[in-house]
User: What shape does this take?
Amino acid sequence: MTIEQHLQQWQGQVSELLQQRLPAADSSPHTLHQAMRYGALNGGKRIRPILVFATGQALGADDVDLSYPAMAVELIHCYSLVHDDLPAMDDDDLRRGKPTCHIQFNEATAILAGDALHTQAFEELSGAEFSHRATPQQLEMIQVLARASGSLGMGGGQAIDLESTQKMIDLDTLENMHRMKTGALIKASVLLGALCAGPLKPDERQALESYADAIGLAFQVKDDILDIESDTQTLGKPQGSDLEKDKNTYPALLGIEGSRQKLDDLLQLALQALAKLPYNTQLLANLAQFIVHRNA
Assistant: This one.
């Protein structure tokens, strides 16, 4: 099976899980539940839950066990997008080719929808009926996801991003911001998949974290390049929005060629980390290649 076929299969699996587990659109409170489904079911690459499945399968975890953290991490990601698009944050009108949640509904409903998606993620993970192999790590999974979502992870990264807009920052600060804002949840996805297979040995955990760190930064570098080189229809969001908002990006600091070199360096770091693992990690390597070479 090609990486594209794997991606399609897992994307369908994640969408089906979301369809089943999100509150029904015709259940009360109707508008809130409709907004939650709108924010979570409007497509997307589903990279984070795919990393849960790919990592878990590489380490021999059960697919049913993997479905719970895959669902939880995607709910966290969807909540973050709903909130990031708000006028008080990035103030975007378009997401995945459709009006953003606060445009489709209203600002207050979008805030509540994000809050509800966030809390459902932890409901799914804490209430999961794991197998005997994954159950001992259930509390650790909750901690991993919480840490990645909070002030030392995604939330903190967004705060630094907002504080840094229209200010010049150096490369170390930019990388730290994106390790938190984008990379923390990607790292959590990899660890969640691995924890479903059993306790992690220190050296294996270090290799997986190195892999996740590299692809997390690579994901952001590629996004920054696409913001310049792609178009609105392909991206599903306004092209050039980073430049328009005077945001700090890799091309702004390194130039396009320097950013491409950075991307290649990160890919090599990811592949080197995988080589240290005693498992078949070809799918994880293919995912790293996909992240680096994608067009949207």
